[in-house]
């Protein structure tokens, strides 16, 4: 009876697997603070994505970890940058069987770890950064991304990227916007995964949102839709279920939520200590994010759920 009347059902096709590919390694590297997640080689990435497809997963989102960084993050738009190399290999292998998304930011590629160009005053220069995001969008689309996902929280990024993609003939490449993205302490393990240390105070409060505020999220979401976002995202997920619910009630576009690295690692750490039941908590958390209104959930638990639900 409970099964019959349940309001919310989690399905493997709701989930997107975030994956890391690192330049210059010959074996996948474990990430200590993200147990079970690795930095892939291009070959192991392709194998993992084929395995996820066989499990029924419909989408992945790719993050590149370059061997060298510079002030502008030029690896983000270099046709031979690691993400572009990996996107070409993925698209050649899985074609259109899966949705291949590319995280669009420069923080993995910049020597200072910020999501944009840092001006002489030490602040990120919003408008100069838009120009390099457009280059990265075109490089990712050229390499085969079906979706680009700008995560840098620069004002006007969605409109600028949409125009650049259209001008280059990529009208069919979609934009999933990280719209309401908070300056959260829950991204710590991710920064280990992409080898990022943030210069100048070690935070992104100048461009990511203050977690005391919810109203600003609606402005960010509406602006992104106005500028051409196809999917809007709230990030992180569990501390922001109110925001997810509000967004879902106010817009017609698909809504995504990112169950981020720290949310995943907390489950893994507590379960490893025997303090919580991993599968039960993982299921409760992901289902709650869907119940709050997310149509799409980006989560490092994607492979686990695909295997678990296939049993
Ligand atoms: C920025 C980006 C971040 C995450 C995704 N894209 C980190 C940040 O804003 O510092 C975090 C994802 C996670 O914690 O799982 N390119």
Count of spatially separate domains: 1
Quote the CATH topology: TIM Barrel
Any idea what the radius of gyration is? 18 Å
Distance between the termini: 21 Å
| Main sheet strand line-up | 1-4-5-6-7-8-9-10
Return the string of H and E elements. Answer: HEEEHEHEHEHEHHEHEHHEH
Helix amount:
25-40%
Q: What is the count of DSSP helices, taking H or I runs of 4+ residues?
A: 11
- How would you state the average pLDDT, rounded? 97
Low-confidence stretches: none
Question: In this structure, how is the largest beta sheet organized?
Answer: 8 strands, parallel, barrel
Q: Tell me, what's the shape?
A: globular
Quick tags:
311 residues, alpha/beta, 11 helices, binds ligand PBG
Task: Detail the topology: elements first, then pairings.
Blueprint (H helix, E strand, L loop, with lengths): L1 H4 L9 E8 L6 E2 L7 E3 L1 H13 L4 E7 L16 H13 L4 E6 L21 H18 L3 E4 L6 H11 L6 E8 L6 H6 L21 H12 L4 E5 L5 H10 L4 E5 L1 H12 L5 H15 L3 E4 L2 H9 L1
Helix pairs in contact: 2-3, 3-4, 4-5
The structure holds ligand PBG.
The site of ligand PBG has 11 residues, from helix 6.
How would you sum up this structure, described in words?
With 311 residues, the chain is an alpha/beta fold. It has a single domain (12-309), classed as TIM Barrel (Alpha-Beta Barrel), CATH 3.20.20.70. 40% of the residues lie in helices and 17% in strands. It contains eleven helices and ten strands. The protein has helices spanning 2-5, 42-54, 82-94, 126-143, 157-167, 188-193, 215-226, 241-250, 261-272, 278-292, 302-310, and strands spanning 15-22, 29-30, 38-40, 59-65, 99-104, 147-150, 174-181, 231-235, 255-259, 296-299. It has an eight-stranded parallel beta barrel with strand order 1-4-5-6-7-8-9-10, surrounded by eight helices. Helix 3 (82-94) links the parallel strand 4 (59-65) and strand 5 (99-104). Helix 2 runs parallel beside helix 3. The longest helix is centred in the middle third of the chain and has 18 residues, at 126-143. The radius of gyration is 18 Å and the shape is globular. The mean pLDDT is 97. Bound molecules: ligand PBG. The site of ligand PBG has 11 residues, from helix 6.
């Amino acid at each position: 009876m409970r099964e019959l009347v349940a309001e919310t059902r989690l399905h493997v096709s709701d989930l997107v697997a975030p994956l890391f590919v690192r330049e210059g390694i010959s074996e996948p590297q474990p990430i200590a603070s993200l147990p079970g997640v690795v930095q892939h080689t291009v070959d192991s990435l392709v194998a993992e994505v084929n395995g996820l497809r066989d499990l029924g997963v419909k989408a992945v989102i790719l993050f590149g970890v370059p061997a060298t960084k510079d002030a502008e993050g030029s690896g983000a738009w270099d046709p031979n940058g690691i993400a572009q190399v990996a996107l070409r290999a993925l698209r050649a292998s899985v074609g259109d069987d899966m949705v291949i998304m590319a995280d669009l930011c420069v923080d993995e590629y910049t020597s200072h770890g910020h999501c944009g160009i840092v001006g002489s005053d030490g602040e990120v220069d919003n408008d100069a950064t838009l120009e390099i995001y457009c280059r990265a969008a075109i490089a990712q689309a050229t390499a085969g991304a079906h979706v680009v996902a700008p995560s840098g929280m620069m004002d006007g990024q969605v409109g600028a990227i949409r125009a650049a993609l259209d001008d280059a003939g990529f009208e069919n490449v979609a934009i999933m916007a990280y719209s309401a993205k908070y300056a959260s302490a829950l991204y710590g393990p991710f920064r280990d995964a992409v080898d990022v240390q943030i210069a100048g105070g070690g935070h992104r409060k100048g461009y990511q949102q203050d977690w005391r505020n919810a109203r600003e999220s609606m402005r960010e979401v509406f602006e992104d839709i106005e500028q051409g976002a196809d999917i809007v995202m709230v990030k992180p997920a569990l501390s922001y279920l109110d925001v997810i619910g509000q967004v879902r009630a106010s817009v017609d576009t698909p809504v995504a939520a990112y169950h981020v690295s720290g949310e995943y690692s907390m489950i893994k750490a507590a379960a490893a200590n025997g303090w919580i039941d991993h599968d039960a908590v993982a299921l409760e958390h992901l289902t709650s994010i869907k119940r709050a209104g997310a149509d799409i959930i980006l989560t490092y638990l994607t492979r686990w759920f695909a295997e678990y639900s296939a049993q």
